[in-house]
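User: Could you go from structure to sequence for me? I need the amino acid at each position, not a summary. Structure tokens:
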């Protein structure tokens, strides 16, 4: 569910998973999921029978908003794909789910990893980020007790704090999906509003008044950060330049701003889904909230964006295919300061 919440921040990303996009009278729905072992897409078919509680008749797993059924159907398709039952989804890696949903390159960064000797004994703000990727074969020969055998260590050097922030900023500008979590604790525990062992979506990375900020969202829509620069923090009124630069508006929607130093103190894992872009990623919003004129409006809007806003040209000339994690360029050429 955390992977789905992160992916929902990207326009059209969730829609591309669905092959059946309308109500099916026979109750059969098709989904397109990526099989990383065979390196190809598979079509998974599920029915619309959803496990519900005998006590109150409510769905046992994913809970819909109103009469929406797509989340429950996609969850059922993922369960069938990953291991034939819902138990296979519990405790799985978010980057694995992102890979299945998108077919794109995924990786994970850990702060102060056990193998990073340079970070031992240092405060979190001085520790390094170590990159890991999904394992594609048998456990490596140098595996140590306690290693997660689903992951392998990348061969590049660890990232310092500045490089990690620039990487987040760079990937977000290129449409990538990023999740953040603290691997310690349980999801029924929270520190300053941050739920432990729970994944958050990273929405924006910005710099203002010589400070680095991240905007995150809790997929639950609740449990927001309550520390410095939270929605009720007096720092916003004390720093009007930062408030204007970040266009801050308090909302009780699960999203919040954190300064990078606070983020590093409360999160130790970053999960990247580096999205490939091209013609396959162009979608049309048919505005289902307006059943009568929505499709017509969506078609006109799509044509306008494709031709007048150069969306087609960008997809043709500026698309990218990601096969590995690339460090962001420095200076104006990469638009990263």
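Assistant: Here is the amino acid at each position, in order:
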């Amino acid at each position: 569910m955390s992977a789905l919440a992160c992916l929902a921040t990207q326009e059209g990303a969730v829609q591309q998973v669905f092959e059946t996009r309308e109500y099916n009278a026979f109750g059969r729905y098709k989904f397109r999921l990526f099989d990383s072992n065979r390196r190809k897409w598979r079509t998974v078919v599920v029915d619309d029978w959803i496990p519900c509680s005998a006590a109150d008749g409510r769905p046992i797993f994913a809970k819909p908003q109103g009469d929406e059924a797509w989340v429950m159907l996609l969850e059922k398709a993922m369960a069938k794909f990953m291991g034939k039952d819902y138990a296979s989804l519990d405790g799985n890696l978010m980057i694995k789910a992102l890979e299945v949903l998108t077919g794109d390159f995924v990786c994970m960064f850990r702060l102060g990893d056990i193998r990073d000797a340079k970070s031992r004994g240092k405060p979190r703000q001085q520790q390094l980020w170590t990159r890991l990727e999904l394992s594609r074969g048998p456990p490596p020969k140098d595996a140590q007790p306690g290693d997660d055998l689903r992951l392998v260590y990348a061969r590049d050097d660890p990232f310092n704090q500045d490089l990690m922030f620039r990487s987040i900023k760079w990937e977000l500008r290129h449409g990538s999906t990023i999740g953040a979590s603290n691997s310690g604790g349980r999801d029924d525990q929270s520190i300053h509003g941050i739920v432990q062992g729970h994944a958050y979506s990273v929405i924006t990375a910005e710099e203002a008044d010589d400070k680095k900020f991240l905007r995150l969202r809790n997929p639950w829509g609740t449990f927001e950060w309550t520390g410095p620069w939270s929605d009720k923090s007096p720092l916003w009124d004390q720093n009007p330049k930062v408030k204007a630069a970040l266009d801050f508006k308090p909302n009780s929607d699960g999203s919040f701003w954190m300064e990078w130093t606070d983020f590093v103190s409360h999160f130790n894992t970053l999960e990247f889904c580096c999205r490939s872009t091209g013609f396959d990623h162009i979608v049309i919003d048919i505005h289902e909230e307006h059943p009568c004129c929505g499709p017509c409006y969506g078609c006109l809007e799509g044509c306008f964006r494709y031709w007048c806003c150069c969306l087609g040209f960008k997809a043709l000339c500026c698309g990218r295919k990601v096969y590995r994690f690339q460090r962001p360029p420095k200076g104006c050429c990469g638009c990263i300061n």
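One structural detail worth keeping in mind: Residues 294-308 form the longest helix (15 residues).
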